[in-house]
Amino acid sequence: MTTPPNTGPSAADPRHGDEHRFALYTPEFATDPHRCYEQMRARHRSLVPVDLAPGVPATLVIGYRTALRILNDPGRFPADPRTWEKSVPQDCPVLPVLQWRPNPPRSAGAAHTRYRGATTAALAGVDLHAARRTVEQFAAPLINTFCAEGAADLVAQYAFPLTFEVINAMLGCPPDISERAAEATAAIFDGVDTEKGNRMFGEAVAELVESKRAEPGDDITTRLLHHPAALDETEMIHQVIALYGVGMGPMQSLIINALRLMLTDDRFADDMLGGAVSTREALDDVLFDDPPLPNASVTYPRQPILIDDVWLPAHQPVVISLTGCNNDPRIRTGQHPGNRAHLAWGAGPHACPAQHTAYIVAQEAIDQLLDALPEIRLTVPASELRWRPGPLHRTLATLPVTFPPSPPLPVP
Asked: Which domain holds residue 386?
């Protein structure tokens, strides 16, 4: 990487000309991003000019090794977006997710180190065996709400409410607060009335923090409050927002995307009762091919930088495409059972600190469902499944299934 001695780059570089920008916000991209990534590779090498929303340009990284260079170089590629924010309108649909907050994903330098230390310590207190029991505790009653019907939408009736309850339990969030936080999270990630969703989310989390001050517990929020970093009120709210927002949507998506794979891929069709091994393989495949947050890892160069023969302008988003990088033909070796060398959890100082917990929760959620309903099948052809629109996430809007009606499960 080099920087020019005096002047910055020009947008005249043909690889960053507006006339060839790929739109990541269209229904076509949501429906078949893999075809879009192929088209990108046909025109570009590792760096692709894109639009995150109408009139919101960025550079998408689809080269695995280039992504690692960027993710491991926070000095040149910090995650603090405050300068960029000044250039986008307040109603920008991706702003609520990408805007600066005093938390690990959207900070840099000493601030990031401080926030990351507090968050990592709070997450380290999660008992993974207890996490499995928590999933089982909530899974059985949810399955009982539809097992006798012989049909269900696994997004609305299982993955969303299950993830909702598990994250709330880990954060120590009371039900009345968690309901409003979930509604706000959905509004933000769907890009529907994002300003209102952002405001509702902050208000709900502020109430959660105050409730844990009054009644501490064995939960992530309480551990954050008691951490030596001595987070102030605003910082506390934004640590919890990061954990809540990133925990809810991506966890639900990981569960649903893995179930979709297991219900549509012949490799899993004859082994639905195989248990943990099949589930682990499905999760590994999804984290390579359809990770829940494929384009939410964003950095902003401090100054113009030349990388892979492309000038990256200062303070403009450089988005690591986790899916694009995982499928880089220069490192892709075909099937990858047991291979976890993907970038789905990120890399470098911003790598996800909750990946072990997320993996266990997703695996247990899937195993509980398939143990209870082993003959589960898709209601519609796989080609008719609808993906939620949006440039940052990858998840189905619904996952309709049928199965032989089954009696209720014993509730732990």
From this structure: 110-290+347-412
**φ and ψ at 204, to 5 degrees?**
-65, -45
- Reported pTM: 0.88
Q: Considering the domain boundaries, does residue 2 fall inside one?
A: yes
**3-state SS class at 400:** strand
Q: Which two tokens stand for residue 132?
A: 């499995």
The model's pLDDT over 337-356, given as tens digits with 9 standing for 90+, comes to: 555 678 999 999 999 999 99
> For residues 173 and 171, what is the distance between their CA atoms, to the nearest angstrom?
5
Rounded Cα distance, 296 and 330, in Å: 23
What CATH number is associated with residue 12?
A: 3.30.43.20
181 and 264 share one domain? yes
DSSP 8-state class, residue 312: E
CA distances in angstroms from 24 to 53, 94, 244, 303, listed in the order given: 7, 11, 25, 25
- The per-residue pLDDT for range 223-255, each reduced to its tens digit, is 999 999 999 999 999 999 888 877 778 999 999
Collapsing DSSP to helix, strand or coil, 365 comes out as helix
